[in-house]
Amino acid sequence: MMNTPEKPALKVLLCSPRGFCAGVVRAIESVERALSVYGPPVYVRHEIVHNRYVVESLRAKGAIFVEELDEIPDTGAPVIFSAHGVARSVPAEAARRHLFVLDATCPLVTKVHREAEIHHRRGREIVLIGHAGHPEMIGTLGQLPPGAVTVIESVSDAENFIPRDANNLAYVTQTTLSVQDTAEIVDVLKARFPTMAGPHKDDICYATTNRQEAVRCVAPMVDAMIVVGAPNSSNSQRLKEVAKRAGCPYAALVQRAADIDWNDFGAIGRLGITAGASAPEVLVEEIIGAFAQRYAVSLETVAAAEEDMFFPLPRPLRVSQAAE
Q1: Which residue in 29, 125, 136, 153 is the catalytic one?
Q2: What are the tens digits of pLDDT across the range 95-146?
Q3: Cα–Cα–Cα angle for 281, 283, 284, rounded to 5 degrees
Q4: How far, in Å, CA of 194 to CA of 189, rounded?
Q5: Termini Cα distance of the chain
Q6: Is the same domain home to 42 and 102?
């Protein structure tokens, strides 16, 4: 009888918190609730959250994803705006076409939109710190007239920025940035422009901050780190960067267990696992299961913060909920 070789031992440190944040839960529940109340189809402008598994599961239930409103026929079916937020022109076009809109924009993104508007009304030139081209950035830029906002992506951009009036500036940020990178950019801007106004409370959302802090705790303790998330998810990409910066020798961003390159995980003894704010826990479990097939896995959770944030659904969906 052949002896089955013993699996090598692997200690898996699970970062906590990880995965879905309150804004993502609200956005996904908005689509599911709309499908339940109004029936399919439900149109969704842009991926509701940046996760292929989530998008495909909602598509299977009757959600139709589009990038722009002109892809939607004249319809009475619900049209949902994604968690990332939209430019002002989008709801204006929806109103012109009398579309039934449910806005699933994360309230923390809406907070940044309102801050930018207030600074603009007060006559300030606005700096928006973030990654150009990200849907959240497009939505924030679209709150104000062209030219009112300058995008700053790096310390170098901050060093080279030439304002119209150095004494009349304000900054806002994308909600899913690296806390450390953003602090470095803000430090440069404030050193150059001491009177620059900022948000009353950091724009980087609680979930981004907490997930990065958990990774910072775990990264020095492991041989490798897996971040479960999509390549177009800003907060997931930042988690990978934070792991490397905090001392983890190797960090990989993967969407599913099938994406794991096992050549990169040879003789490891300790593995960290986290998940971006739009990655469901079922995918974390799938990846743990894939490692358990190859290693004798023991699990430990490392908690950096407790989260109890909750955002109510858009009002029409709350009304229908109360009526049941």
Answers
A1: 136
A2: 999 999 999 999 999 999 999 999 999 999 999 999 999 999 999 999 999 9
A3: 65
A4: 8
A5: 62
A6: yes
pLDDT band at 6 (very low <50, low <70, confident <90, very high): confident
DSSP letter, residue 147: T
CATH number where 224 lies = 3.40.1010.20
- 219 and 299: one domain? yes
Query: Which residues constitute the domain of residue 274?
Result: 9-20+206-303
Coil, helix or strand at residue 111: helix
- Give, in degrees to the nearest 5, the angle at Cα 131 between 169 and 230: 150
* Each residue's pLDDT tens digit, 198-219: 997 788 899 999 999 999 999 9
Q: How many CB atoms lie within 10 A of CB 153?
A: 18
Q: Could you give the 3-state DSSP secondary structure of residue 141?
A: helix
* 86 and 165 assigned to the same domain: no
CA 46 to chain CA centroid, Å, is: 14
Known active-site residue 136: yes
Do you know the residue count of the chain?
324
Q: Which helix (H) or strand (E) holds 159?
A: helix 155-160
pLDDT > 70 in the chain, percent = 97
Q: Which two tokens stand for residue 227?
A: 């971040």
Residue 121 lies in a domain: yes
153: tokens are 């992506």
Do both 15 and 30 map to the same domain? no
Contact 289, 273 (CB under 8 A): no
Stated pTM of the model:
0.91
